Every structure is written in C-alpha cells, then in structure tokens.
Amino acid sequence: DVEEQWERMEDVVDSLLEKADICMDQAKGRDNQGSSASVVTQSTPQVTHSKVGYKVMHSSNIPRPQLTFPDRVDNSLAPFQRKIQDKPNALVPLSNGTPSAANSGDEEWDSHHQSLGIADHLVSLPHPYAYEIAQLEHPASLFTPHTPQPFLPFDKTPAQWIDTLEALKVVTRKLEGQSEIAVDLEAHDMRSYQGFTCLIQISTRKEDFLLDALVLRPHLHLLNQAFTDPSIVKVFHGATMDIEWLQRDFGVYVVNLFDTYHATKVLSFPSHSLASLLLKYANVNADKKYQLADWRIRPIPQEMLQYAQADTHYLLYIFDLLRNELLAGPSMQEEGEKKEEEEEGAEIDPTQWMRDVLKRSNNTSLRKYEKPIYDAIRGRDKGGWGKLLERWERPLDGAQMAVFKAVHAWRDQVARDEDESVRYVLPNHQLFSLAERCPVDQAGVIACCIPTPPVVRMHASDLALLIQHAESEAL
C-alpha cells in the first residue's frame, strides 16, 4: 500500500528532523525552563548531508513567523473559517450561507462526528468557487496542439524576490495578462500544528517570481484576481496540498487548473514525479535534495532560491509538451482498441484524454481545507491513534493501550496549545516507548525520551501523573 509506505517514510524523516531540532536546541543551551532575557538571533544556515543523499538546510533560533501573523492561529476544534472576503471573477456572489455537509455515508462515524461537536451544522462553509469551477468552459487553446515555446536559459533568468506590497501589485498585474502561469508552494509544518506557507513560486513565459509568503501573508489574497480568472490556465504539479494551503493561509482559490501529475497518470507514465518530467522533457536533473529544507529561514540562501525557482521555471514548457501528447493520445491507441471502438460505432474523441485530465484537475481545485479533528474514541482522524497503532509491530496489553491513548491525546492537545507539530512535541517512537514502559516518575519519562523533546522535559512530571492515572484506570 503506497499510502502506508509513505507514512512509514514520513515517520523516519520526521524522527531525523525531530532529533536534529532537539539537539540544536540543547546545543544552544535552550532548556525551555523559561524565556531568556537576552535577544535570540537566527544562526547562519547550515547544510547537513544525510546518508541517503538529502540535504537538510536548517538554522537554529529561527523566530516563529506565526507569532507575527496578523491572523490569529486557531488550532481549536472549531470549524475552519474562510479567509476570502471578496470574490473576483464571480458568476455568483460570495455566500456566507449554508455550511457544507459532512456526511460520510457511515452512520456510526457521522454519529461520532456529532459527539465531537463537528456535526453538519458546524462544518465550514462551502467552496466559494464551486459554481464557477462547475460551469468552467476551458479555453480553446487547451484543445489545440501548439508548437512548444522553449523555456529561457535558467542561468539567464534571475528569480525576482517579491516581499513588498508594491512589488506584489506589479506581479499581479503582470499575471492578469497571461494565458497560462506555473505555480508551486513551499511550506513548513515542523514547528506548527497546522503548518503555513513560506514561499510561492510563480512563472510566466518570460519571468520567475518568488513571493515571500511570510511577509506578504495579509496581502496575498490579491492573487485571486489571476488565480480565479477562467481564461488563465494555472499549471501545478501535484496540486492537492497546494490548493488547500492557498485557502488556509490566504483565502486564495484556483479556477482552471491543469495538474501535470494527472497528465502523467492519464498518459500512463512509469513515474509521476516532477523530477521525472524535468528529466524527460527539459533534460534537467532536478536536485530534490532540499525537500527537507526549513523554508522559514530568512534570508533564504541562494541555492535554496534556485531550487525553488526550478520547480516552476520549466513547467510551462512541460505543459506544452503534455498538451500535445494528450491531444495525440486517443488517435495513437493500440490498433486493437481502435478496431473495437469502430465496431461499436463509437467515434474517437481526440480531446478525450485532455478532458479527463481537466476533470481530475477540477476535482483537485474543488478540495476544501478543513482543520484537523481529534477522534479520541476511534482514532480514525489523520494521525489518529488507531492508524498509528496499525503500523506498530508489537502488541500492547490493556494498561499499555490505555497509556498509549492517554499520552496520544495529551500530545495532540499540547501541540494545539503551543502551536507545534505533534512529532515535535513527542515523536511516535517515544510515544510507544512511554506506552510500553509506563514510567511513573519524571526521571522515568525522560529516560524513555532520548533525546528529550523540550516540551516533554517541561511537562515530564505531568506526563508521569497522566501515565499513572491511565494505568490505574485500566487495571
């Protein structure tokens, strides 16, 4: 199962990052017993080379950007509040009416939703551009083969760093005159419960822009003018998370999406990564070694900026080539398939594959961001105890299971309160160590968690009491 293997890989990577972050805190003398009166500044970014070839670009003492966000971080169980205030390119007005339904088709699960306080009437509002996406008439250019427009030489196309409102307005005006644009995002979620976008990369046929999403956060809603314009094709690769991040952080939505990932699926490519497309069509060996970089770093080192720029610089050229292959595809089917269709009297639609990609892309752009819930009873939420337990190789007895659930719930609540990721608060392997060993004092808790996460060190006594209580309740 691909999803399960991906989650296992995430656990390994998260564990490495957790250890690096905790060890850097300890090396800098941060004991988390209280805030220091001295001014803490970000250290010079450093690159750590892992055994598997990844480069972890990190820096200690990075200020937490979310502390300066004008929109308050809300990690509560209350529904996500849409950030969109006005609706460019609207076919119907922006509505604050009936919330969308949350019924899953599973009566037991829906009943449990209600017990958590997230029944239908409490779920977030509908997608504000659902009607526009449903009524979208794609530009005729998508259904006509084109001579691919070569990309400009990378070394002669410096990325433009955008970190002021005035510069952002210039960019948005330029985007509104394009027929297609390429977009990508870089985000951070290690030191945040829900995560946040740090950088937005946008490329036209002639220019590459890197938008500082931390500084421009309150103004990036201006991108809606171009991003919801149905005449402009927005080219992403693997847009699923990007679509949700744009909504979550800026109230930005996408109408007329072309996701090159879906094109690779329809064309039955053996690989579906952006790196494979860059190699196949642009003869570029993508350096994906900065996927573990900390995009909160400011200023961003030049090599990270080049990595980010490359993600969109070639994407419109790749789009041109994929468009031609999709339009040629139906007429190039195996002879047997063509004969079978002819016998059935069905005509071959040369736009069939393209329409399939666009339908899948529309479904992606219709995704809605929802805040993480916590399912204490069944553990079926993302990152829930039930899913985590399925990946653990050793069984837990009754008392250990009670401790596991109690500490798992404690971890989630502390992460919400402190706006940290659950894996930063307490890594999964340490969570299981606590469940299996059931320490009953502060020293025992710390002994189970080496290196000791700062939050665990602060709350070791509370954790010991929680474990004692959970264990006694189970006996």
Strand and helix layout:
Layout (H helix, E strand, L loop, with lengths): L1 H26 L18 E4 L5 E4 L48 H9 L14 H5 L25 E3 L2 H11 L4 E9 L7 E8 L4 E5 L11 H4 L5 E4 L3 H11 L6 E3 H7 L7 H9 L19 H12 L1 H14 L6 H9 L8 H14 L19 H6 L7 H21 L3 H4 L2 H10 L4 H7 L5 H5 L1 H15 L1
Parallel strand pairs: 3-6, 4-7, 7-8
Antiparallel strand pairs: 1-2, 4-5, 5-6
Helix pairs in contact: 7-10, 7-12, 8-10, 14-16, 14-19, 17-19
Family: Belongs to the exosome component 10/RRP6 family.
Subcellular location: Nucleus
Main location: nucleus
Structure in words:
This protein is α/β, with parallel strands linked by helices. The protein is built from 19 helices and eight strands. It has helices at about 1-25, 105-115, 130-135, 165-175, 225, 240-250, 260-265, 275-280, 300-315, 315-330, 335-345, 350-365, 385-390, 400-420, 420-425, 430-435, 440-450, 455-460, 460-475; strands at about 45-50, 55-60, 160, 180-190, 195-205, 210, 235, 255-260. The protein has a six-stranded mixed beta sheet with strand order 3-6-5-4-7-8, sandwiched between helices. A two-stranded antiparallel sheet has the order 1-2. The model is unreliable at about 30-40 and about 50-55 (pLDDT under 50). This is Ribonuclease H-like domain-containing protein. GO terms for molecular function: 3'-5'-RNA exonuclease activity; nucleotide binding; single-stranded RNA binding.
